[in-house]
């Protein structure tokens, strides 16, 4: 029998070019509103979502602008993790990313899953 968890991990592989990035953060914010501890793990072009000013390039009405969705997510206690090789392959460093974003390997995501976190992928 699977145990219940109050954790959600959202894996985001789509960047500023995709409406799925806004959908992912809308759902992540909804998870926090539902009382879940939510972490977002960014890979591939998803890294560009947390490059300083990168998220300001995306707005998918009627959803809130991506920059607002990410800001709200962080203010409400959501964690944002960025894949180290994906950050490096773009030539970014920690200083290029939004405050509060943690460059960390998939092991952080795996630890949450081992503790029963639900997962969603975008």
Automatic annotation (TrEMBL):
Domain of life: Bacteria
Entries under SUPFAM superfamilies matching the protein: DsrEFH-like
Pfam name, any one: DsrE
InterPro entries: DsrEFH-like (IPR027396), Sulphur_relay_DsrE/F-like (IPR003787)
Protein name: Putative peroxiredoxin
Organism: Rhizobium lentis
